[in-house]
Structures are given as structure tokens and as C-alpha cells.
Amino acid sequence: MTISALWTIGIIAAAAVPTIPSTPDLGKAEARCRPGENGPSLLLDIVGLKDREGRLKAEVYPANDQDFLQDDNILISQGKTFRRVEAPVEQVATQNGHVAQICIRVPGPGRYAVSVLHDRDGNRKFGLSVDGVGFGGNPKLGMGKPKAAAATMIVGSGPTRGRIIMNYRRGLLSFGPIKAL
Length: 181
Hints:
3 helices; alpha+beta; three-stranded mixed β-sheet; disordered N terminus; five-stranded antiparallel β-sheet; single chain
């Protein structure tokens, strides 16, 4: 068989991969930490919340630019890492309300890109003027998404604690924490 024939077969096979309909529940079954579990996971301290409104959504992606913030159904259809945990802010916030804690399981030790959305209006998508966002590694945000390398966290063989600083719209075109942390 020629190389071009193999290439064509590969393209047809890749196109034949069924996609999973995108739903808010994709990636959740594998992500929620169980009490007393000691496997690889991220214990995220989410700091700098604007308020206790809405929901928090933490997501874990492969640590490369092609897959970071990629559509969840595509990642899962391709057998790539994707995990999601959602919780009402009121449920996971500490007493002072500006810190929340979420635990999210990962498939194994390694590097993962992490994002957190503070969906203040509860519409399940990022609203530029309303919602907050944070990333592993706490990169300074510009007008586009950060590179995966800047949003990466390293997870060991057990629970690994990480800190994510939330950013909200400040002014016309800038994002940042609501106060110095």
C-alpha cells in the first residue's frame, strides 16, 4: 500500500470518529473527588471571588495549546483528558466568601492546563462584563486566552494543592484581580 493510500485511510478514519453531543455534564463523572480518596487530584483554592453569586466551573485539559480550552465533546471523542467540576459558589465558598475550594480528579500524575470560570449569572458561558476567570499558574491576562504553558499545573501521585486567582473585567479592555492578593 502506498503512503498516499495510508494517508487517505488515516484521514477517513479520523473523520469517522463519532462526536459526543456537548452537554454541561461531559467530564463530570470522572472529575468529582470522593471523600478520603488519595489518587491524583487538584485541590484548588480559588481566591479573589467578586461575590458568592452563581457557580464555579473548574476544568482540566491537556497541557498543550491545541487542546487547551478546546470543545469538550471533541476532546472526549478523541480520548483526550477533560475533566469538569461545577458547584454553586455558596456551597464551596469559605466563611469570608472570597475564597472557595474545589477538588478535581485527574487521570494520573503529570502536567495539566486548568481553567476556572465564575459564572455569576448562571448562564453556563463566559460573559465578558459579568463573569470572572482564572487559570492554573495565574498568568497575567490580556485580550486573548493564555498559552497552555502559562496555565499549567503539575499534579503528583496524590492530592496536589494549587491556588487560582480570579480575574474580572476592570475598565474597558483589561482584566485583573479585584484587589491585590
